[in-house]
Amino acid sequence: MTAADPQSESESESAVETARHQLERAAAHLDVDEGIVDRLRHPTSVHRVTIPLERDDGSREMFTGYRAHHDSVRGPYKGGLRYHPEVSEEECVGLSMWMTWKCAVMDLPFGGGKGGIVVNPKELSGDEKERLTRRFAEELRPVIGPMTDIPAPDMGTDPQTMAWFMDAYSMQQGETTPGVVTGKPPVVGGSYGREEAPGRSVGIITREAMAYYDWDIEETTVAVQGFGSVGANAARYLDDLGASVVAVSDVDGAIYDPDGLDTTDVEDHDESPGMVSGYDAPETLTNEELLELDVDVLVPAAIGNVLTGENARDVEADMIVEGANGPTTTTAERIFEEREIPVIPDIIANAGGVTVSYFEWLQDINRRAWTLERVNDELESEMCTAWEDVRTEYDARDVTWRDATYIVALERIASAHETRGLWP
Predict the structure, then answer these.
(1) Where does the Glutamate/phenylalanine/leucine/valine/L-tryptophan dehydrogenase C-terminal domain lie (predicted)?
(2) CA 11, CA 412: separation in Å to the nearest integer?
């Protein structure tokens, strides 16, 4: 570590710590009532449930599930459900806070929620995952609903998981209620374009950021860490625009071609595990080496806390666009600010997912499906509007892109709280 790095970050920063730090930075630039800021430091509620599962061999096992509700001043709670061994109450609270900011910066009528089950989904059979999901839906039924809290897919869950969840809720309600979740297959009320939306929005925001700095997209090199649903769709979008995607990675490693990869020929990790690191490319790298490539744009789209105080000074990219949630720690952010490397934050870059979830919710409520073309056109419009709102704050204040994004979000949330007042 250098003298400028005040602390070692060998340990990951929690989502709650990061979310609260970002809230404080935004609040410092605004005249917001301290009571509202203090309210936003904490979740409205956290629900913990115990889920019994009968395994395929007849044995029974208990699992713990969570659903965190952060803030609903602008509308129902909205956020994913993840199945992962490291799901925790603290993680769900932090991620629900991020969802509040994300919905606000996109000006969606939702608040922030997040939840999940402490389980390794790879250790579940298909039937076990279905039974676990259906029971989880029943345990959460008192606190979810299309006007209350609307879950969506996340790590370890997918459209089929949402279909099971929706069906279980509907059977208990006595009526088909597609709007209780988003991210479903279109055949049961899902929206076209939903799975591709987070990566597509990363591509749109990267394009807009390039235009802001007057970069020629056809002369721009891009490296994408995490060639899964988000990373692959972002890479292919930018490739189609003419950017040169020179490196991508999966969990096993990275591939590199200085002349640019054919992103349509590289199957993403979700489509075919191992295809990225096993692809016939001129060079192979580690995930860590990809982060330090000399490229114009780096898109960390895998997991959180990959850009830290330990590697931030070795990053050679001229711009970072966050595809994953929370890939940059607080210390890394400070180093990038010092080095004048712009970081476009996750809460706007990957907000296409929740934006198309909003479109799906509207379609479910109105029982009228949209075409893929309409979904993509509406997403383009919403992302560009949000970018202009953030750009306006960035140009008007001496702040980072992240601060500008949070300022937009906090102004909207605080205004809603001030207008509604406090229930006695």
Answers:
(1) 191-421
(2) 34
Query: Angle 10-13-15 (CA atoms, 0-180°, nearest 5)?
Result: 155
β-bridge pairing 319-321 and 297-300: parallel
CATH classification for the domain delimited by 197-349, as one of 3.40.50.1820, 3.40.50.720, 3.40.50.2300, 3.40.190.10:
3.40.50.720
249 neighbors 226 (Cβ within 8 angstroms):
yes
Residue 375 in 3-state DSSP? Answer: helix
Structure token digits, residue 59: 């044995």
* Three-state secondary-structure class, residue 237: helix
Judge contact between 166 and 188, C-beta under 8 A.
yes
How far apart are alpha carbons 173 and 181 in whole angstroms? Answer: 14
pLDDT in the model for residue 177: 97
Pick the closest to residue 345 from 293, 385, 386, 292 (CA basis).
Answer: 386
- What pLDDT score was predicted for residue 424? 72
The CA distance from 199 to 48, in Å, is 31
What is the average pLDDT across 183-188? 97
In the prediction, which pLDDT does 298 show? 98
Return the bridge partners of 54, or none. 60
Return mean pLDDT, the chain: 93
What CA–CA distance (Å, rounded) separates 208 from 212? Answer: 6
Q: Is the pLDDT of residue 264 over 80?
A: yes
| Beta-carbon count within 10 A of 1 CB | 13
pTM over 0.90: yes
184 is an active site residue: no
Do 43-188 and 197-349 share a fold?
A: yes
Which is catalytic among the residues 78, 114, 129, 184?
Answer: 114
Domain 43-188: which CATH number of 1.10.287.130, 3.40.50.10860, 3.40.50.300, 3.90.800.10: 3.40.50.10860
Q: Residue type at 294? A: D
Enter the tokens of residue 179: 């709007």
Q: Name, in order, each residue with C-beta under 8 angstroms of 180's C-beta and a sequence gap of 6 or more.
A: 144, 145, 146, 150, 151, 165, 166, 169, 170
> What does the DSSP 8-state code read for residue 191?
P
Would you list the domain boundaries of the chain? 43-188, 197-349
| pLDDT band at 14; cut points 50, 70, 90 | confident
